[in-house]
């Protein structure tokens, strides 16, 4: 069957990463079992091919009738064909199963990032490394780490039994050689590779982080003369990854050399035992040739295992980093089917857009101070309310709760009388939308950035939203209009244009409550005043929450809440607060926010 991320088993966080990665492939266990069987047939065909060839050559040396060799000739051709065919089918089956599992894992990672908001808990370059290299470790384990050992057990057992039937001491010697080359050497390689593998995964993540940070921050790094330092950081990360890769190559060389040594000693031992058996008359010359060459061919079975074992450390480290994303605790707990309210979030009543916050408390860890400590706030339908305060006051945490990026630790947030924590997250975000202080702009066109809010919207609806956001004239003046590429993170747009683009995107979603979180945080004073004016004009008619640390545009709001250290210090209209002693009047007098 085809598994989806919802049907995949959910591994326990405390289990070994390798076992958890194998558990992800459990829905395709039959396909992998078929791949192992085909791999055993391919490897067994190779061993049998050399055995039959040895019998054919040894028999031909005695000049028998050609008819006596016809069966061996046909068998040789058949084994040659079957070896290639079964190897192809084994690769086809196992890689198909591995790629499908890998696709499921990628979907699961993306869904976790989308639904539990851990994106900002990882640096962008490190997150890219986790999504690409560390996720690919699942494929490496399944294709290279799981299939070859199982194939070796099956074909190795058959080869030992065959050689034992020819000469018991020779079969026991082959068993000992295969155990050394296929078990002892890989175990030693795995033990030696655990540390380098962990360091390799960390070094790869550090290199990716340093490279992405340098590329994205290049303009600022050049402006502040820090580019040389950033380039040195990339070079140091690359040098560390190179050193670890060299250690990994040394391990691979050790495994290959040890296997070759054991192979040679075992073949010489088998030859010595066979010669002695021939001299004693207990073994004929033809079976002797078959025994020796079968012993040589049998080591093809275990040849890949030392390299696989040496890679287990890196695969395990990659799995740990992968599950570091999948195990990230959610910031928002989705309501269960039995707890979701039956009442729609917007039912058409007069107070459907009334927002009411009571006793809201939030903190980011058990030992952390309260980011919000008992906040009460009301936004009447169609009113504009500002939450004002210094940086670190808890304002952005309030926005995160309203937009369902965090759960309250206690208290309630109600919209139209309905507690939003009992409503599906996507439904809340359909009704409450906004403009963050650092809106994300995708490296695509203006049209595609806007259509994210409503994929089926028309160009006319997009232009209407741009007009409300005071961005229509700028877009019309661009040579490509809505097809203009905005660059990575909107680099081809000014700060004010990025804010207006984010507002137009929010308006296209047709929300009922707008949350404007520090919309002027990175703008110069002249641009700031114009952007605030445009945002508040566009938000007219909505229930609007303006979260800010400065006083620009506060003469346009109906009420102001002054927040500091997670608590509401003052509440009233701008005129009332200006006439009252406190933080607001002091800020007015100082001319700062």
Report what the structure shows.
This is ATP-binding cassette subfamily C protein CydC. It is a multi-pass membrane protein. GO terms for molecular function: ABC-type transporter activity; ATP binding; ATP hydrolysis activity; ATPase-coupled lipid transmembrane transporter activity. Pfam families: ABC_membrane, ABC_tran. It comes from Nocardiopsis mwathae. With 593 residues, the protein is α/β, with parallel strands linked by helices. The chain folds into 2 domains: 17-326, ABC transporter type 1, transmembrane domain (ABC transporter transmembrane region fold, Up-down Bundle); 355-440 and 506-590, P-loop containing nucleotide triphosphate hydrolases (Rossmann fold, 3-Layer(aba) Sandwich). The protein has helices at residues 17-24, 29-60, 66-116, 124-166, 168-216, 218-223, 227-280, 285-302, 305-326, 395-402, 425-431, 446-451, 459-468, 472-477, 495-508, 525-538, 574-578, 583-590, and strands spanning 355-362, 372-379, 384-388, 410-415, 418-419, 432-435, 513-517, 543-548, 559-564, 567-572. The strands form 2 sheets. A 6-stranded mixed β-sheet has the order 6-7-8-3-9-10. α16 (525-538) links the parallel β7 (513-517) and β8 (543-548). α2 packs across α4 (124-166). The protein is elongated, with a radius of gyration of 34 Å. The model is unreliable at 1-11 and 337-343 (pLDDT under 50).
């Amino acid at each position: 069957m085809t598994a989806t991320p919802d049907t995949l088993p959910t591994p326990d966080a405390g289990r070994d990463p390798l076992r958890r990665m194998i558990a992800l492939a459990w829905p395709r266990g039959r396909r992998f079992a078929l791949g192992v069987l085909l791999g055993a047939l391919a490897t067994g065909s190779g061993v049998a091919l050399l055995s039959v060839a040895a019998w054919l050559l040894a028999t031909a040396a005695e000049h028998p009738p050609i008819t006596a060799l016809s069966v061996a000739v046909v068998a040789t051709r058949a084994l040659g064909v079957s070896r290639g065919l079964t190897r192809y089918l084994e690769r086809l089956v196992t890689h198909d199963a591995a790629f499908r599992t890998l696709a499921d894992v990628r979907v699961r990672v993306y869904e976790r990032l989308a639904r539990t908001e851990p994106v900002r808990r990882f640096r962008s370059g490190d997150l890219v490394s986790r999504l690409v290299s560390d996720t690919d470790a699942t494929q490496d384990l399944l294709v290279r780490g799981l299939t070859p050992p199982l194939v070796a057990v099956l074909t190795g057992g058959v080869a030992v039994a065959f050689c034992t039937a020819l000469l018991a001491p020779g079969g026991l010697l082959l068993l000992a050689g295969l155990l050394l080359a296929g078990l002892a050497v890989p175990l030693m390689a795995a033990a030696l590779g655990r540390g380098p593998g962990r360091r390799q995964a960390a070094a790869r993540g550090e290199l990716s982080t340093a490279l992405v940070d340098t590329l994205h921050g290049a303009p600022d790094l050049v402006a502040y003369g820090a580019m040389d330092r950033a380039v040195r950081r990339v070079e140091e990360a690359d040098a560390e990854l190179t050193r670890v890769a060299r250690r990994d190559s040394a391990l691979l060389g050790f495994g290959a050399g040890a296997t070759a040594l054991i192979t040679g000693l075992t073949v010489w031992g088998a030859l010595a035992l066979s010669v002695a058996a021939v001299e004693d008359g207990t073994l004929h010359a033809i079976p002797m040739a078959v025994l020796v060459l079968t012993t040589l061919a049998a080591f093809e079975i275990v040849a890949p295992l030392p390299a696989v074992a040496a890679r287990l450390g890196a695969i395990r480290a990659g799995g740990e980093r992968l599950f570091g994303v999948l195990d990230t605790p959610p910031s928002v707990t989705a309501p269960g089917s039995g707890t979701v309210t039956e009442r729609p979030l917007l039912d058409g009543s007069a107070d459907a857009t009334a927002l009411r916050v009571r006793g809201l408390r939030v903190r980011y860890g058990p030992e952390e101070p309260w980011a919000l400590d008992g906040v009460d706030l009301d936004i009447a339908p169609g009113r504009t309310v500002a939450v004002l305060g210094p940086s670190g006051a808890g304002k952005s945490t309030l926005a995160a709760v309203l937009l369902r990026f965090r759960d309250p630790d206690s208290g309630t947030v109600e919209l139209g009388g309905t507690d939003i924590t009992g409503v599906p997250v996507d439904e809340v975000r359909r009704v409450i939308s906004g403009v963050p202080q650092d809106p994300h702009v995708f490296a695509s066109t203006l049209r595609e950035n806007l259509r994210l809010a409503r994929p089926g919207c028309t160009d006319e609806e997009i232009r209407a939203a741009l007009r409300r956001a005071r961005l229509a004239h700028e877009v019309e003046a661009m040579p490509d209009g809505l097809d203009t590429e905005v660059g990575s993170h909107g680099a081809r747009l000014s700060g004010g244009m990025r804010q207006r683009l984010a507002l137009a995107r929010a308006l296209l979603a047709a929300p009922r409550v707008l949350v404007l979180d520090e919309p002027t945080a990175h703008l110069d004073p002249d641009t700031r005043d114009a952007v605030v004016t445009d945002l508040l004009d566009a938000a007219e008619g909505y229930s609007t929450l303006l979260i800010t640390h400065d006083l620009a545009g506060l003469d346009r709001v109906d009420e102001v809440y002054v927040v500091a250290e997670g608590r509401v210090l003052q509440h009233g209209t701008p005129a009332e607060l200006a006439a009252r002693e406190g933080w607001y009047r002091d800020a007015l007098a100082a001319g700062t926010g």
